[in-house]
Design goal:
- With about 280 residues, this protein is an alpha+beta fold.
- It folds into 2 domains: about 1-90, Arc Repressor Mutant, subunit A, CATH 1.10.10.10; about 95-270, 2-Layer Sandwich (Beta-Lactamase).
- It has 10 helices and 8 strands.
- The strands form 2 sheets. A 6-stranded antiparallel beta sheet has the order 5-4-3-8-7-6, sandwiched between helices. Strands 1-2 form a two-stranded antiparallel sheet.
- Strand 1 (about 80) and strand 2 form a beta hairpin.
- The protein is elongated.
- It starts with 10 loop residues before the first helix and ends with a helix.
Length: about 280
């Protein structure tokens, strides 16, 4: 019966329905405790932080059960507690989701589009997502022009100092932004974290106004890059960001943006609809 539940429903609604159906069906193969734990995690689909009381209300699970589930999920790193006493998704949840994104059909579908784009526009173009405070590259196509940094699949670059990282942050939901902030705070010194926050805040404002982010020699003094978010229509989320980079000596930043951003946005739309 559970397989007929519509995927269009909110995740928490689907999970609660499945729990009820398994109980009604007396499904002895269904592990209720595991189902409850995953139901609790699903409550964070559209929320950055939730209190103990909110989790009780949203999941309709008993208070004592919520307490035990929170303890278990925190121990395993799937939840963390904030300085204000609320809960949010932890690093284990983020790493698991990042692995899922990396294996998503979108990457395979994107690769021929990236190759064609790189060849037609004589740029290097890359697809990446955030993992533990860094942008992890999942697809790369290099420009014929020689660049000072040779990035490949699996390479990681800073979120705040790169166009691709800034675009991912700017396009992400508030809940995902909070997770990125938490990851940066965990992995950076206080001074570097403050610089990162300032850069990301400015990038988010620029993205809201113009629809792209830019890095003009900030990650590598020889590279100019613009980037946009990639919206996955299958999941309704920004799964990746996409950049196009060239040697700085060949372009003025403003002219490069005028030339490349609209093309990059079209490419991002194609990739988001391709999986």
């Amino acid at each position: 019966m559970t397989k007929n539940i519509s995927a269009a429903l909110p995740l928490l609604t689907r999970m609660n329905t499945i729990l009820e159906q398994s109980k009604e069906d007396n499904d002895r193969q269904f592990v209720t405790a595991l189902g409850r734990g995953l139901t609790l995690l699903s409550a964070f689909e559209h929320h950055d932080q939730l209190s103990h009381q909110q989790l009780c209300q949203m999941t309709t699970l008993p208070k004592a059960t919520i307490t035990r589930l929170i303890h278990t999920l925190m121990t395993l790193g799937f939840l963390r507690i904030t300085e204000y006493g609320q809960y949010q998704l932890g690093s284990s949840a983020v790493r698991l989701s990042a692995t899922a994104w990396s294996r998503h059909d979108m990457v395979a579908a994107a690769e021929p589009l990236l190759r064609q784009f790189a060849s037609s526009n004589e740029v290097s173009v890359n697809l990446a997502t955030e993992v533990e405070g860094e942008m992890r590259y999942h697809a790369c196509c290099r420009s014929p022009a020689r660049l000072s940094v040779n990035l490949q699949v699996g390479s990681a670059v800073p979120v705040a100092r790169t166009a691709i990282g800034r675009a991912f942050y700017a396009a992400s939901s508030p809940a995902r932004q909070a997770i990125i902030d938490s990851n940066l705070k965990e992995h950076l010194s206080t001074e570097d974290y403050n610089h990162a926050q300032s850069a990301l805040s400015k990038a988010a404002e620029h993205y809201k106004a113009y629809g792209y982010t830019v890095s003009d020699g900030e990650f590598s003094t020889d590279i100019l890059a613009v980037a946009v978010g990639v919206f996955d229509v299958a999941t309704g989320q920004y799964a990746y960001s996409l950049n196009a980079s060239v040697p700085r000596a060949n372009w003025d930043a403003d002219n490069y943006a005028l030339t490349m951003v609209a093309k990059l946005q079209v490419l991002a739309d194609k990739i988001g609809r391709s999986a």
